[in-house]
Design brief:
Blueprint: E1 2-8, H1 13-23, E2 30-37, H2 43-50, E3 55-57, H3 66-79, E4 84-87, E5 106-110, H4 125-134, E6 138-145, E7 155-162, H5 169-193, E8 197-200, E9 203-206
Parallel strand pairs: 1-2, 1-4, 2-3, 4-5
Antiparallel strand pairs: 5-6, 6-7, 8-9
Bound molecules: glycinamide ribonucleotide.
Glycinamide ribonucleotide (GAR) is lined by residues 8, 10-14, 44, 88-89, 109-111, 123-124, 127, 177, 181.
């Protein structure tokens, strides 16, 4: 069993996609141990509760300093003895001391084709606003391993999505989720659970399925 923790900040549609794949048996070797949010009001926490997954809110403002928040966040994750941490719309920079301990054990979904429209300040709807402002004809989503940088770790999966002339940031966000994110993130977990992913020299490689 791959013990997975999911970190969320908002609605949790990516979390829901993972829950759905656990429930339909696609992620048969995965157990969702905990969902953690910096935002007490995140609907993602409600999704976790509805599905019997421990849901924990850890708002940074409840702590006197960033260091204390980081320590509590790490202690919480450590206590669940996780094999993999999935950032599914988690809009908090991870504590630097998570690395190297969790090196190649944290993945993130980003709503563009990295290295386009990523890094500091590019999150959520802002990513799609920037893609439309630049006039790209294709965008998409990326699952990557998380390192000390922002959106800079080894790329595991990417999927392209067409931009339409009449797209708004909202319509593009929705299509990127439907056509890319909700497929890629569970798939990444499935590949990791199957032991098919290897990271070497800053790149992720996927081994062919055993015949
Ligand atoms: C998703 O589009 C995800 O890719 C994005 O936040 C959204 C969360 O939606 N993440 C980032 O922008 C990270 N840089 P959700 O809460 O419905 O899964």
């Amino acid at each position: 069993m791959l013990r997975v923790g999911v970190c969320v900040s908002g609605g949790g549609t990516n979390l829901q996609a993972i829950i759905d794949r656990v429930q339909d048996g696609t992620l048969a070797n995965v157990s969702l141990e905990v969902v953690v949010s910096n935002n007490r009001k995140a609907y993602a926490l409600e999704r976790a509760r509805q599905n019997g997954i421990p849901a924990v809110a850890l708002p940074p403002k409840d702590f006197e300093s960033r260091e204390e928040f980081h320590q509590a966040f790490l202690e919480l994750l450590d206590s669940y003895k996780l094999d993999l941490i999935v950032l599914a719309g988690f809009l908090v920079i991870l504590p630097p001391q998570m690395f190297p301990k969790y090196k190649n054990r944290v993945i993130n979904i980003h709503p563009s084709l990295i290295p386009s429209f990523c890094g500091t300040g590019y999150y959520g709807l802002k990513v799609h606003e920037a893609a439309l402002a630049r006039g790209v004809k294709v965008t998409g989503a990326t699952v990557h391993f998380v390192d000390e940088g922002t959106d800079s770790g080894p790329i595991l999966l990417q999927k392209a999505v067409e931009v339409r002339p009449d797209d708004t940031p909202e319509s593009l966000q929705r299509r990127v989720m439907e056509e890319a994110e909700w497929i890629l993130l569970p798939r990444a977990i499935e590949l990791i659970a199957a032991g098919r992913v290897q990271v070497k020299d800053g790149k992720a490689y996927i081994r062919e399925e055993d015949k």
